Amino acid sequence: MGHIFANIEIEGGKGKERLEKVLVDTGATYSFLPKETLEKIGAFKHPRTKEIELGNGERLDADVYTLDITINERTGPAAALTFEGAKSVVGVEALESLGLKVDPSSEKLESTRPKGLAYFYSLSKLNEVTKK
Q1: Which of 36, 68, 100, 126 could bridge 11 with an S-S bond, Cβ 3.0-4.6 Å?
Q2: Domain span at residue 51?
Q3: More confidently predicted of 54 and 132
Q4: Nearest-10 Cα torsion for 105, 111, 112, 117
Q5: What are the tens digits of pLDDT across the range 25-82?
Q6: Contacts from 64-70 at CB under 8 Å and sequence distance 24+?
Q7: Where are the beta strands (DSSP E) in the chain?
Q8: 3-class state of residue 120 by DSSP
Q9: How many domains are there within the chain?
Q10: Dihedral sign of CA atoms 17, 12, 45, 31 in order
């Protein structure tokens, strides 16, 4: 299987930015973006850092941001982490949020469900559970 790339749009409190040919990494839980990009769009910065392990085994603390991400005309919330020298990568958390997966045979992203945010509890089932 080759590398999968996606054109994405990210949005924060200050604006939007379109990024071309961003690597989709199904081995990465979260998306990673350069700090300058996250600050430029006004992504919300969380007060704590998150320890991460890079592919080479190096551990470091990364800043955590929240933003909206759009891929293939699907928009949803996502976390993006950053550290010095971070390159743009889309992780599986963003793909799950958008209802997308990698099709290894076509080397493209495909949908796993209809567009829109997913909420899998039915209200009747939720009411049954909360009454107990």
Answers
A1: 68
A2: 4-131
A3: 54
A4: 160
A5: 999 999 999 999 999 999 999 999 999 998 889 999 999 999 999 999 999 999 999 9
A6: 65/12, 65/33, 65/38, 67/10, 67/11, 67/12, 67/38, 67/41, 67/43, 68/10, 68/11, 68/12, 69/8, 69/9, 69/10, 69/11, 69/31, 69/94, 69/97, 69/98, 70/8, 70/9, 70/10, 70/11
A7: 4-11, 16-24, 31-32, 44-53, 59-71, 74-82, 89-90, 100-103, 108-111
A8: coil
A9: 1
A10: negative
CA 96/CA 111 separation, integer angstroms: 10
**Residue pair 66/93 in contact by the 8 Å Cβ criterion:** no
Quick one: which H or E segment has residue 93?
Answer: helix 92-98
pLDDT given at position 114: 81
Residue 74's CATH number: 2.40.70.10
* H or E stretch covering 131: helix 123-131
- Look-up: residue for tokens 């039915």? 122
Higher pLDDT, 105 or 123: 105
